[in-house]
Design goal:
four-stranded mixed beta sheet; about 210 residues; single chain; about 15% strand; Beta-Lactamase; GMP Synthetase, Chain A, domain 3; 3 domains; three-stranded antiparallel beta sheet
């Protein structure tokens, strides 16, 4: 299922109306279908061939002054960039970090609503964020590919020990990212990790008060 925020759906519909690719009557029928099928208007517009996913991405890039790219090749997404954000954050916000340098992280989006979380990406990565537009299906394909697997882990390509080491390292990165993401969500000023003999306690300071 394709999903775009209501705001972008309305903007795209207005563009199609202005171009003459869509009539007012067709738009009303599309809105009715979207309501009946409980899906977003953009999905109906694409389904009825008023616009393609590629054309939709082109229009979004123009509307928001963003660069339009394609991420269809296996090497287009760097594993080190993708692993920098937690799987939950990527799936929830429908974003794909695909390139990483010392100072910059490049992130692909399909819905401009995701621009609202780029500040979080900057804090989590500690880098300047550059945002690019791709199609919804490209984002979904990349996320699906990474769920339960990693780039470069093909049968017999590396040893079991290497796989275990990389998996352990990746799990640690994801866990730390989740801690930071929760701190951002809660508006915490401090993160306290208190080690004990057999366990540890994680607490956040919010409005001067420490709580779990």
């Amino acid at each position: 299922m394709i999903y775009f925020s209501e705001d972008i759906c309305d903007k795209i519909a207005n563009i199609l109306l202005a171009k003459g690719s869509l009539t007012s009557e067709q738009l009303e029928l599309a809105k009715k279908s979207a309501t009946e099928q409980q899906c977003c208007l953009a999905e109906i517009l694409i389904e009825n061939k008023y616009i393609t996913q590629e054309e939709l991405a082109d229009e979004i890039a123009k509307l928001y002054g963003l660069k339009r790219i394609s991420l269809q090749k296996a090497g287009d997404v760097e594993d080190k960039a993708y692993s920098l954000l937690s799987e939950d954050f990527i799936v929830e916000n429908h974003v794909v970090p695909f390139s990483l340098t010392k100072d910059t992280i490049k992130v692909a989006i399909s819905d401009p609503l995701a621009l609202s979380v780029m500040g979080h990406v900057k804090i989590i990565s500690g880098r300047h964020v550059e945002t690019f537009v791709v199609t919804f299906k490209e984002i979904q394909s990349i996320i699906t590919h990474h769920q339960g697997s990693k780039f470069g882990l093909t049968s017999g390509s590396i040893t079991n020990d290497a796989v275990e080491d990389e998996e352990e390292s990746s799990e640690i990165i994801r866990y730390v990212n989740q801690i930071i993401e929760r701190a951002i969500f809660e508006g915490a000023s401090d993160i306290h990790i208190e080690p004990f003999r057999d366990s540890s306690r994680l607490r956040y300071r919010v409005d001067g008060v420490l709580s779990t």
